[in-house]
Amino acid sequence: MSDRKIPAAALWALGLTQIIGYGTLYYSFSILVPSIALEFAWPEQWVFGALSASLLVGGLFAPTAGRWADRFGAGRVMTFGSAAAAAALVACALAPGRVTFVLALMAMELASAFVLYSAAFVAIVQVGGARAQRSITHLTLIAGFASTLFWPLTAALHEYLTWREVYLVFAGINVAICLPIHAWLARLSHRTDESASPIPAAIGPAGGAIAPRDRSRVFLLMLGGFAIEGFVLSSILVHMVPLTTALGLGSAGLVVTTLFGPSQVASRLINMLFGGRLAQTWLAVIGATLLPLGLVVLLATTPSVAGAIAFVILFGLGSGLASIVGGTLPLELFGRERYGARLGWVTAARQFSSALAPFALAMAMAGMGVQPSLWLTAAVGMLGILAFSAIILIRRQPLGAAIPLVNANSR
Predict the structure, then answer these.
(1) Which end of the chain has the least Cβ crowding within 10 Å, N or C?
(2) CB burial of residue 159 (10 Å; 0-12, 13-18, 19+)
């Protein structure tokens, strides 16, 4: 097992590519939607629907992208992804009609599977060896500024450029900055295959290594927990401003929601400084708890502005932890072997639920009302707590504890 550490320059460079990747391929979209919808004579909700469909397509391909990162090296895959992302952005910019735009948008989300967090985490593991967990936390802290930078940057560019020209600029940024960085990382990383020495699971308060008979069960629980987190996060974030208005907060709701980004970054900073000794399974439970807890606080205190502030802070802290453990928990539970493929399935689970969640919450609010729908969402979020807690219980079992019981039942 390697004890090397990813070079600081490589980590900062990778963080820059994550800011650009999330900024150009994801966060810029909401700023440009009104102009896109106007040009194509399409309702804005249909443009967002096209994004949801594209996210589903990207989620389908995420496990394959992860296997390729294992087989060929994440740096090589990300180099290809940078070129593919630039080509997809150009295709969006040149799309003559709705169908070609949607196809280009799907190509963009396919490319994102090669360049965003799931690929970047694999690159860190391949370059950084046994110290990868802390480096993943650092990366999420750096990349947490993507929305802070690219929302205003996209708006500023759009004052002088059309949405098509903005996408062309973003394509150039991906080629000029991200592609060379990823090509450099390809030379630093090494191939991880079936024969690679796995990083052992962390031994801590959550328990020890997972018995072979429990690996599939733990993997499914992990996917379920992340899918539930993705559902809760996506459903609330897409509707956050309208929700605060519907709950009687008025214009104060818009101001309160600006605390989400700083809270998300703060959770990553706190974890970086103080969370090193805590097992990732416990971090997963804490992150999963903060999301429904924030909703309960909001519902219990509405229309209090102080309660809304507490909700946004709790929700931001939970979101920040969720992004970290999405990369570190599979590493802790299963080690380095086939890490990319497992991370691809985590990405797929999150993207599937995230793509469906806004529509599901909108339908629930139309049928049940705002407050009952939020209580239901909080209840769904609590299932995520149960999923991650079950992993802790399984890990606490001695490796041979369940064998006699199985034999007895078989008789």
Answers:
(1) C
(2) exposed
Query: Do you find a cis peptide bond into 358, omega within 30 degrees of 0?
Result: no
d(CA 127, CA 182): 12
**Interatomic CA distance for residues 294 and 289, integer angstroms:** 9
Structure tokens at 24: 């150009």
The SS3 of residue 207 is strand
In terms of Cβ atoms closer than 10 Å to its own Cβ (0-12, 13-18, 19+), residue 406 is: exposed
Separation CA 43–CA 210 (nearest Å): 50
**CB-CB contact of 343 with 327 (8 Å):** yes
The Cα 306–Cα 252 span in angstroms is 10
User: How many other β-carbons are positioned within 10 Å of the β-carbon of residue 124?
Assistant: 27
What are the residues whose beta carbons fall under 8 Å from the beta carbon of 102, sequence distance 6 or more? 50, 53, 54
Domains of the chain from N-terminus onward: 8-188 (1.20.1250.20), 212-403 (1.20.1250.20)
Residue 350 CA to residue 233 CA, distance in Å, equals 10
The helix (run of H) or strand (run of E) holding residue 106 is helix 98-115
The amino acid present at 215, given as its one-letter code, is R
Residue type, 275: G
Q: What is the mean pLDDT of the chain?
A: 83
Rounded to two decimals, the pTM is: 0.78
95 SS3 class: coil
pLDDT in tens, 50-64: 888 888 888 888 889
- Provide φ and ψ at 400, rounded to 5°: -105, 10
Please answer whether residues 117 and 320 qualify as being in contact, where contact means their C-beta atoms are separated by less than 8 angstroms: no
End-to-end CA distance of the chain: 42
Whole-number CA gyration radius for the chain: 21
Closest CA to 66 of 335, 336, 338, 334: 338
For the stretch 154-206, pLDDT in tens is 889 999 999 999 999 999 999 999 999 999 988 876 543 333 444 444 433 33
pLDDT at 400 over 90: no
